[in-house]
Every structure is written in structure tokens, then in C-alpha cells.
Q: What sequence folds into this?
């Protein structure tokens, strides 16, 4: 019987992750995989225990990872034009609504209402980050397409040095789309005039607290789990499309029925990938 090749398994896993990224299930660039370099030692150790001892292959892969890390993380060609610790778009009383389309790479993320209302949107962190303005349309109803990445991600393991915080004005209607990569996210839309929300998860868990408003929410779990918290008394109109993961709903949540029920109706379209989507009633204090 032919022995199983651990190198083959390693390459299959790597290829599966890259394929999922290309198909849109994950938001990971191929060089972000360098963060997982310790996996080589795991496969190398199993290889030795199985008696293969193909040390030269694993040493070559380690040198390759080291060489690529120097190219992508210590040479400044990855640096975008804008490197910030604080980024903002000032508030204008003439603006009625704002559309924010946000793509985040390797970062922990917090989104919540602004406390001072000086800005329509402000982004801050204890560490430097890149902001790539893919599209910026100003006027009465501005549209922002932003991509945020760490300036130098924590390649060599451990937690990131800080969370990227995004604060939104509660004075305008908000259409918010988020596509995440690797990292957990907390999204607190309570107190905001949320009209539309789209969440496309990557690798990591996402928790979102929704306001007591009539709004439309579309979520795709990707690999991680997504938990949506809806206020008491809100009527849930739910459409699901399941993959490997499942969609679960708390039993005390009021479900939409045909007719014209009185109350705030929240429309949610939930699509699962590998991860699960949980819809819960908002009772937690964060």
C-alpha cells in the first residue's frame, strides 16, 4: 500500500484555501498565507514520526517562506499612498445619507456610533494602517469604497497590536457593506440610522447588533460564524440559503407572517458557507 504523502496533503490544503479566496468565499491574498508559516513545523514533525524524514523539502519550504516574508513585509512596495493612525471624512449637515463599502484584510475590527458627531466616518487604531480609497464620491449622498490593511501585519504569530475602530455618524442614513479577511469583528449599529447592511465573512467570527429600524440585511458567513442580535419586538422576515453551515433563530423572535403585521420588520437574507449564522434576540450588554 502506497504511503500517504504529507507534502501532498499540505499542498492540497494550501490550494483549497487559495481556491476559496479566488471564488470569493475568503478575502485572503496569497501572501497573507505567510502568517501560517508554523504549519510547516507541524507537517514536518508528523513526517518524521511516520519515518519519511524528507527534511530537505521542509527546510526548502521554510527558506522560501522566509524569502517571501522579506519581499512582502519588509520592502516598502506594499505601502499604499495613505498610512494612518487616524482617518476621517468631516460631517456636513447637507448630507442625508452615506454609502460605505469596506474591505478589511488581516485585522480585528470594531464598528460603532460616533460620540462627537464631528465626522461622517472616522477610522482609528493604536497601530498604523493603510487606507486605499478605491472610490470616493462626494456630494449630498457620498459613496466610499475603502480597503484597509495593516501597514505591517503580525506575521510571526501572536495577536495584532490593536483593533481598527470605525465610528459612524448617527445623523445620516447609512448603507454599509463589509467584506472581512482574517480576524474577528464587532459591529454595533444600535443608535445608527441603518438602512442597509451587507456582511461577507472571511476567516473569523463576526457579531453584529442591529437597531430597531426597518432595514435590509444580507449576510454570507464564509468560513467563520456570524451572530446577529436583533432588538426585542422586531419582526423577522428571513430568507435562507445554506451550504455546509446552518442558520439558527432564537425561538422567542417574532417571525413574519403573511398579511400586514404591526411593528418594525427586519428583512434578513442569510447565506452560509462553511460557517454558521445565528440570529438572536438582543439581551446582552456590551
A:
Amino acid at each position: 500500500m502506497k504511503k500517504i504523502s504529507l507534502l501532498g496533503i499540505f499542498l492540497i490544503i494550501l490550494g483549497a484555501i487559495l481556491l476559496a479566496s479566488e471564488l470569493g468565499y475568503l478575502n485572503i491574498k496569497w501572501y497573507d498565507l505567510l502568517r501560517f508559516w508554523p504549519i510547516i513545523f507541524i507537517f514536518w514533525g508528523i513526517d518524521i514520526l511516520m519515518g519519511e524524514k524528507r527534511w530537505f523539502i521542509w527546510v526548502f519550504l521554510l527558506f522560501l517562506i522566509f524569502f517571501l516574508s522579506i519581499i512582502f513585509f519588509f520592502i516598502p512596495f506594499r505601502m499604499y499612498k495613505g498610512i494612518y493612525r487616524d482617518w476621517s471624512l468631516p460631517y456636513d449637515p447637507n448630507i442625508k445619507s452615506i454609502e460605505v463599502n469596506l474591505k478589511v484584510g488581516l485585522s480585528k475590527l470594531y464598528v460603532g456610533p460616533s460620540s462627537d458627531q464631528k465626522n461622517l466616518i472616522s477610522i482609528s487604531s493604536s497601530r498604523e494602517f493603510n487606507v486605499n480609497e478605491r472610490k470616493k464620491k462626494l456630494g449630498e449622498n457620498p459613496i466610499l469604497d475603502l480597503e484597509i490593511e495593516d501597514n505591517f501585519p503580525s506575521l510571526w504569530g501572536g495577536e495584532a497590536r490593536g483593533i481598527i475602530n470605525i465610528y459612524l455618524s448617527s445623523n445620516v442614513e447609512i448603507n454599509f457593506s463589509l467584506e472581512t479577511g482574517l480576524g474577528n469583528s464587532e459591529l454595533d449599529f444600535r443608535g445608527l440610522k441603518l438602512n442597509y447592511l451587507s456582511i461577507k465573512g472571511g476567516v473569523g467570527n463576526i457579531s453584529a447588533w442591529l437597531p430597531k429600524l426597518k432595514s435590509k440585511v444580507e449576510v454570507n458567513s464564509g468560513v467563520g460564524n456570524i451572530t446577529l442580535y436583533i432588538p426585542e419586538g422586531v419582526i423577522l422576515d428571513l430568507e435562507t440559503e445554506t451550504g455546509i453551515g446552518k442558520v439558527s433563530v432564537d425561538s422567542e423572535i417574532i417571525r413574519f407572517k403573511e398579511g400586514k403585521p404591526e411593528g418594525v420588520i427586519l428583512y434578513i437574507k442569510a447565506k452560509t458557507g462553511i460557517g454558521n449564522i445565528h440570529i438572536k434576540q438582543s439581551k446582552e450588554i456590551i
About this structure: Residues 6-76 form one domain. The chain has two domains: 6-76, 83-281. The chain has a mean pLDDT of 79. The longest helix spans residues 55-73.
